[in-house]
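Bench log, entry 3. Co-assembly request; chain sequences pasted below exactly as received.
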Amino acid sequence: MMTNISRRNFVLGTACSVAAHPLMSRASFASVPSDNRLVVIILRGAMDGLDVVRPVGAPEFENYRKGLLEGTLHTGGFFGFHPKLEPLMPMWADGDLSFIHATSTPYRDVRSHFDGQDMLETGGADGIEGDGWLNRALGQIPGAARETAISVGREPSLILSGDTPSLSWAPNADLEMTGQAQQLLELIYHDDPLFRNGLELAEILSRDEAMGGNRAGKLTKNIRGTRELAEYTALRLLDETRIASFSTAGWDTHRSQRSSINRPLEQLADVLLTLKSDLGSVWDKTTVLAMTEFGRTARVNGGGGTDHGTGGAAVLAGGTVRGGRVFGTWPGLAEADLYNGRDLKPTSDVRAHAGWLLHSLFGLEKSVIETTVFPKLDMGRAPELLL
Amino acid sequence: MSSAFPRALAPKALGPIRFGYGHAPNVNVPATASNIFASLSVPEFNPDVYRPMASYETVLVEIESGKLRSKGQKTGDEDALEKGIALRRTQRASNVSDAARALARIVDTPSPLRSRLEWHFTNHFSLRQRNGRWDGAMLGFVDEAIRPHIMGYFSDMLRAVETHPAMLMYLDQHISIGPNSRDGKSRKKGLNENLAREMLELHTVGTGYTQTDVRQLAQLLTGQIINGAQRSDFKPNRAEPGVATVMGQSYGGETPPSFAAIEAVLYDLANHPLTARHVSLRLAQHFVADVPDPDLVDSMVDAWMASNGYLPRIYEAMLAHPASWRDFGAKVKTPLEFIASSFVAIGVTGDDVMQVKPNQYKKRVLSPLRFMGQMFLYPPSPEGWPEDAESWISPQLLSERVAWAMNAPYLDRMGGFRRPNMWAEKVLGEAARPELLTALTRASNTSEGAGLMLASPDFQRR
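Structure output for the full assembly:
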């Protein structure tokens, strides 16, 4: 908790001079709206839910997925897991990990990553413009200040952008300056509040990062970048941040999926394990929701991969979740059960799941979620994803 | 605590910064209102840099061919795969070199204001490619629909933009079908209001229209499609029949429906007094202040109404108004302006930019632009990039600016000056505060001082 103290002192020590800044003017450092934490991870590129959570009990599965069946981790039930989820099996057994299958946004048919991701992040019926749903949700949380939510990483993200102030930081967006240069820059910025406050906050955010240590140094290239995102996210969540978002990429496995999906899966597993270990006891108050723009085709293609589909899977982790289970109504894999005869049919709207999490974690009213956060959404009955 | 910006600055010092990309170390950049206006008519002198960008349709056709690759992957057709990969590779390289050429054009132009106007109107008609990859097609759009009309009538620009395949595609006009048209009836497909709405809200009048106007305009715009050659085309079978009324004027009613009705409504919208006000306001907001002096905007509107929306008259009115010459530093350069003006200050030429290898250009210009919050020609929404300083100077985005400044390409040239403070005096003139000049003399080495010069608010504000 060293971070916390030093940070407060730093901010308080300069607060008198920065009263005009929007961050400081909210003056709510001491009040934190909730003890619960929510991490939303965007899995960019369309994760193949059928490969990650394998419906081994479905009679068609083996036939559809030739070449992609190796190493299934069997649970004894209808679903098994991709072998790269092995490191997460203790979390599954502990009840801190679950999945939602056959879910998607209302986005249909065109199957463009970018429109799909826009829909996933704006959460609205119109995929092309607007702010992010997490930003609108933040605006509805009483006592939320700018540091309540953070977008982590350099990847531009829509989900937290909008009118309600939040932080963003990319670990390694270091200033990398000598002490002398930094002092001179502070001097040059001194009489310009906008630049001065930007620099001060950048220094605070990167100092926190330095305090987290450089454990990422020796990792394999595969997971280094995403480990940094998870570590930094955990640091913020231990401080005043309650909502964090970042994204991982590499899920667009059109060919040789047997190998190409390994890296993003290793990253996902590592991110969840890093969050759990770095958050310590705060993990018990944390919910992680990892979601993707759409699923992939039920059948493997000629290149050993899968193409853009419709229904996919979402991942839930954290001490708060009802773990060790796969949520969702299973639509079946028979030809007639597939969407357009090719994709897993979505049986739930992933926005409703996100909405229920906001309801449980931050007390947002259902009516507010169905109008402000996800306009026109029907959340349906509570899926009871959390304990 | 005092705030150093905005502040008064002599017109000669302010002109190049506000209406261009700043002062250059070795060239006299047009600085007074009359010189800046006169420069608008000076032709470009570097033909290699100014040869046309790959056309929109060419790039789109190439993208389609590029799909050979994935098709080859799926079917195992080795020939198709190889062809597709080769095509994609040349296409990618030429995209980056075209992007470099766009920057070379900026640093080489004899009329920085004309270049700034090109980028402003590109942002006024904000659009991006829907497949999400930056494929260079947008450079073709700018060359085809924006640049030719910067020194012409707004109505011509509006017509070029709203009928361009890039716009039809971006705002879903190509899939909008008149519900009572032949195709609409047989396919049970209907209107898409996206283009009609954004045209009224963002591109033209901005206010004073109703949902009925949106609906009626959407009906009028039907019939436009993108054909197999990736060009715009008009199909009467998809156009909604009958008369439509937009902003009190009636259009259409011919049988079969004709493209002339679309041209007529675009012409009237371009010349609507509310459009004159909206477009003038956005120009003044971009160049002068987020909340510009109402009298400045009035004078631009008067020039518009007196000239039928002849754009040079509106620029002239803006340059002539005293309010355009107040409050230096009220605005912050966009990331593109920041990088381009850094190159101008450093003394980087268009040829220098063109010699940068594609992967280096990506690393040193395109990625930094993105990290500073302005992915090249990929704006976040039809509203375009933000104008307010606060949006660009968040802690993270500022860090990226500072990081780029401290290691800017060709930084050691420093415009041919030996000391950072002398360089700052030349390229900022009176825009440099004494505090900045003092700080620059205290830098531990010249490149550090040079980086601090670019990172200073004195340089990043305009």
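Residues 1-30 of chain A have pLDDT under 50 and may be disordered. The radius of gyration of chain A is 21 Å.
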